[in-house]
Amino acid sequence: MNKTYKLGELIELCDERNTEGKYTVDDVKGIFKGEKKSQQMLEEAFRRIGHGID
Fold first, then answer.
1. In the predicted structure, residue 12 carries a pLDDT above the cut 80
2. Which residues contact 43 (CB under 8 A, 6 or more apart)?
3. Is pTM, for the whole model, over 0.70?
4. How far apart are CA 33 and CA 16, in angstroms?
5. Mean pLDDT, the chain, integer
6. Which residue in 24, 25, 27, 37 is a FRET match for 3, CA 20 to 30 A apart?
């Protein structure tokens, strides 16, 4: 039986604050691009093993 996951079930939420100014706008843009790529990779991997993601 194949289990279907919601993407939010597979990602750990993090509440990182930039109170010390250690992250720049470029850092945040890079994180977002990395997240999009990671999300695509997860979706593809789960589909290949027969699990759906909503």
1. no
2. 7, 53
3. no
4. 17
5. 78
6. 37
